[in-house]
Amino acid sequence: MPVAHILGFPRIGAQRELKTAVEAHWRGALDEAGLHEAARALRRRHWQQQRDAGLDFVTVGDFAFYDHLHNLTALVGASPARFGVGPSPGLADYFAMARGTPEQPALAMKKWFDTNYHYLVPELAADTRFALNRDWLLPEVREAQALGHRIKVVLPGPLTWLWLGEAEAGLDKLALLSLLLNVYWVLLAELKTLGVEWAQLDEPILSLDLPADWRQAFVTSYGELAGAGPQLLLATYFGDVSEHAAMLRALPLAGLHLDLVRAPQQLAQFVDEWPQDRVLSLGIVDGRNLWRTDLAAALTTLHAAQAALGERLWIATSCSLQHVPTDLRLERRLEPRIRNWMAFAVQKLDELALLKRALRDGEGSVWRELHVAASAIADRRRAPSTQVAAVRARVAALKPEHARRATPFATRHVAQQAQLRLPKLPTTTIGSFPQTDEIRAARAACKAGTLDAADYRTAMQAEIRSVVERQEALGIDVLVHGEPERNDMVEYFGEQLDGYTFTQNGWVQSYGSRCVKPPVIHGDVSRPCAMTVEWSTYAQSLTDRPMKGMLSGPLTMLFWSFVRDDLPKREVALQLALALRDEVVDLEAAGIRIIQIDEPTIREGLPLKQADRPAYLEWAVQAFRITASGVRDETQIHTHMCYSEFNDILPAIAAMDADVITIETSRARMKLLDAFADFRYPNDIGPGLYDIHSPRVPTREEMTALLDKALAVLPADRLWINPDCGLKTRGWPETEAALTRMVATARAARATLADATPA
């Protein structure tokens, strides 16, 4: 009989209960005991849902108050020395490292492989020491056992944790491996003592192009851990690991998990020669997207695998379900037809259980359920929205000139300077300003029908007027309207585009307590009418300073949505690019001379394997340039990119040909700029002078130190001054304090540069 399990479950709660509790704790409205009780309630619910669905294990260890990789940092006692918390951090220490303190900036954040989840980067030093912190994980194991559950513990694997860490200069991260493995050994031994049967160690870095010494480290590591505790299931996901098939077969494991959603072809390299004493877990239900599983196709694959593996076959989700919303039953406003095409985390548990029953008892035992699923799949394929002739024809008619500005940057730069007349080191912000309770209340009232459209517009215009006045008082050079009308940088646009639909409770975690509700692309995309022109032109009417128009770019609209899986992503991106191009042209026609097209996701979409990257970057750059290239030289195009490592894709970023790029650099202390300088990036750059993801307001001295680092590697006439990202999640007091210091830093630097200029 096949075993059914999952790699992890969403921890935030179907209605963001964890976010509510954590933020109440941060405000001082909920004590630590209350926060722990809220967490226990969520874990109990999620474990029971897995058990009720008929899974063979409940998964323990996937819960985190902030981040699962940060959990492991706390568990193995590897807190950075600069926080002074020692080898046994408590919850307050855990949050201090995640959010920063008045004395210390927070740990850096990076994207979790090619997802929109951000993890906290471990800091590794030659003197990093490890010690098991028994206040983490082990209490949750005992908690689940006390409830009578059969459990499988999940942990990030030691090599993935090390690989994703940031090492001090000159340190070989693998030099820390032996010390880290000692703690894993002790932990696994304690789990065995507690009666845990299986431990799942997640090693998604196997989907990357690993150097030889890291591949050998798998042999060493899992050789040492064999027999330490429970049976080990090594879990890979997000890509093809067939190149490591021989090595993985040789490891002394009890089982291996493969992601067959992202890489179905890899099964052939494993199934026939898989050792007789080991299980093979097949990730057949998509953990990254919210569409129903094609159960008929899944069963075809699973029947063939079952014939070869017999009782060694396990079935699972492709990866953790933390990347999908929790429960479709809460979606009462979705169009019923489209709702019937979907499966959230709870429904994916049911799909796994159904597949298990079909394999165990025969498909005839579940024929009704299989028929319902097949009907939904067929209905989606023939729905009119999935193929719109006019949209397809416009994409087919694209020509190279649609993706090209009329003149090179150097020529455009002169024209833009003549028009905009900006000072050296111009100051700006990334787009959004604090979304106050009043803004949210007005938006909610408008949606509920208790505030009419005219009154809502008046309320938003009042907020825009206030934001413009505040920026002028601060002395910012290039203004933004603050985006009070926008619920989310993707959802707002998706609501105005054909081909999208929206959920009420489709929340997923982005980082910490930050949750997003991605829109759903279910059909061909087009723009019926202008989306931002009214707000931008109103804001420009209030000031003589340049006002930026603000758009989310085609890649961001693609990757921060739940995208259709029946059309190549390239085709969807080009549809989005054409829709947004129309908006850019309309903004220019309305008198907006600076237009920012945010693309924080360009690296997020990057294939994990080097060989697959050139093709992706070609169409990604094409999509951006189609969006941006319909304007005159005098119109300045900006783009913004979030936490990403750009070193290896700088040629593609340069090829996007944005006049100005703003990037997040403060947590990494401007290290990223070295790559831009070495590459000789030709266009303007705005490196962030302070981290907006922390409530901490940096000092003038800190900002000056960062700006000095930027000026040391990049010419002053190519530098802009700005925060790391948008200010939506911050409060006004800290925002104004930080921006006051930022503007003062810029002005002081201008004065220094002027003094240094020969008369």
TrEMBL record:
Pathway entry: Amino-acid biosynthesis; L-methionine biosynthesis via de novo pathway; L-methionine from L-homocysteine (MetE route): step 1/1
GO molecular function, one term: 5-methyltetrahydropteroyltriglutamate-homocysteine S-methyltransferase activity
Enzyme Commission number, as recorded: 2.1.1.14
Keywords on record: Amino-acid biosynthesis, Metal-binding, Methionine biosynthesis, Methyltransferase, Repeat, Transferase, Zinc
Location of the Cobalamin-independent methionine synthase MetE C-terminal/archaeal domain: 425-747
BP GO terms, sorted: methionine biosynthetic process; methylation
Residues where 5-methyltetrahydropteroyltri-L-glutamate binds: R16, E17, L18, K19, K111, N116, R514, C515, W560, E604
Domain (Cobalamin-independent methionine synthase MetE N-terminal): residue spans on this chain: 4-307
Reactions listed under catalytic activity: 5-methyltetrahydropteroyltri-L-glutamate + L-homocysteine = tetrahydropteroyltri-L-glutamate + L-methionine
Residues reported in the UniProt entry to bind Zn(2+): H640, C642, E664, C725
Record has Transcription as a keyword: no
Family statement: Belongs to the vitamin-B12 independent methionine synthase family.
Protein's recorded name: 5-methyltetrahydropteroyltriglutamate--homocysteine methyltransferase
